[in-house]
Design brief:
The chain is built from 15 helices and 2 strands. By secondary structure, the chain is mainly α. Strand 1 and strand 2 form a beta hairpin. Helix 8 crosses helix 11, helix 8 runs parallel beside helix 14 and helix 10 crosses helix 13. A two-stranded antiparallel sheet has the order 1-2. The chain starts with a helix and ends in a 9-residue tail after the last helix. The relative contact order is 0.18. The protein binds zinc ion. Zinc ion binds next to helix 5 and helix 9. Zinc ion (ZN) binds next to helix 5 and helix 9.
Length: about 325
């Protein structure tokens, strides 16, 4: 009976917590990105590392509050033909002229939204606005990390078109949650100044799109070679027994992918730190030491709390199911 209740709770929770990269992954990416920064930035980012981790999933929570949020997390590139999707102009204005804003929004806008976020973060540095720097840093980290996930660039985002439902969370949550702490190498070097952010973001998105086929095919092949009762198993998660992709199956998938999840996670960390650094440089490298004594205004704290409540109580206003 007790087990049944626990199971119900965890199933409800997992329906609710449909975060891209999961709580764990997004938090980890922002956390490690701090270590890639130069000392002039580290002085502010290090003491606020737990904020950056905790608020890495705010954009996903916002999907419960406003309907415009959903499309900022992905782009269904296959809607625009085949790799490298030359029919889609990379510039927002040209893309709108060709396809209309409604169409672009319907199929996801992540590469453009990252550029909007970079603009906001740069402004925040120029104004030396502590709350805005932290909030926009945490959130650009989220969108950039999403753009590194292959299935965030495909309309078959949860394997629903190829009878592989669940693969979304399998790739971006189950694999890193099982392996990252023990096996991933998070020694990544230093953040880089990005001279052409638009080109940089599109390159990352196209890398993701290029990997979609492997992500799907390798899971399919492995599933065909594995009995159902070895693919899924009741295993412990946060002290509860849950039915999930079996550890053995997860490791086998990771091996077939030749550690793709780790590579994308490392690249996400590098990209996030580089975006933070680029915004700071473009704002004229303001002295951040003077901001270290600041804390969040009661107004910002109230906004965070509101966001949390709408997530806890609401239903996601997703353009689609994640
Ligand atoms: Zn997301």
């Amino acid at each position: 009976m007790k087990k049944q209740i626990s199971l119900t709770i965890i199933l409800l929770l997992s329906a609710k917590i449909a975060f891209c990269w999961g709580f764990y992954g997004h938090g980890k990416i922002n956390e490690i990105a701090v270590y890639l920064l130069p000392p002039e930035m580290m002085v502010l980012y290090k003491p606020n590392s737990s904020f950056l981790q905790e608020h890495a999933t705010d954009p996903d929570k916002r999907r419960y509050a406003i309907k415009e949020e959903g499309c900022r997390h992905y782009i269904d590139l296959d809607h625009y033909g085949e790799y490298p999707f030359d029919s889609l102009p990379r510039q927002w204005k040209k893309a709108v002229e060709k396809f209309s804003e409604d169409t672009l929004t319907a199929h996801g806008i992540v590469p453009w939204h990252i550029q909007t976020m970079l603009f906001r973060l740069t402004k925040a540095f120029e104004q030396k606005d502590f709350s805005s720097i932290m909030k926009n840093s945490a959130e650009i980290g989220h969108y950039m990390a999403d753009a590194h996930v292959p299935l965030h660039t495909s309309s078959n985002h949860n394997g629903q078109k190829t009878n592989q439902k669940g693969i979304h969370g399998f790739w971006e949550s189950r694999v890193p949650e099982l392996l990252a702490e023990k096996e991933y190498d998070f020694f990544i070097g230093k953040a880089m100044y990005i001279t052409d952010p638009a080109a940089f973001v599109w390159e990352r998105v196209l890398e993701s799109a290029h990997a979609v086929d492997s992500v799907l095919t390798m899971e399919k092949e492995l599933s065909q070679a594995t009995a159902e009762n070895r693919k899924f198993a009741f295993e412990e998660r946060n002290g509860l027994m849950v039915r999930q992709y079996a550890a053995e199956f997860t490791i086998a998938y990771n091996n077939r992918l030749n550690n793709m999840v780790e590579r994308r996670m490392r690249q996400s960390i590098f990209a996030v730190a580089s975006l933070w650094y680029t915004a700071w440089v473009n704002a004229g490298q303001p002295n951040l030491k003077s901001l270290t004594a600041q804390s969040f205004s009661s107004e910002s704290i109230a906004t965070f709390e509101q966001l949390n409540q709408s997530w806890l109580q609401g239903k996601p206003m997703l353009g689609r199911e994640e």
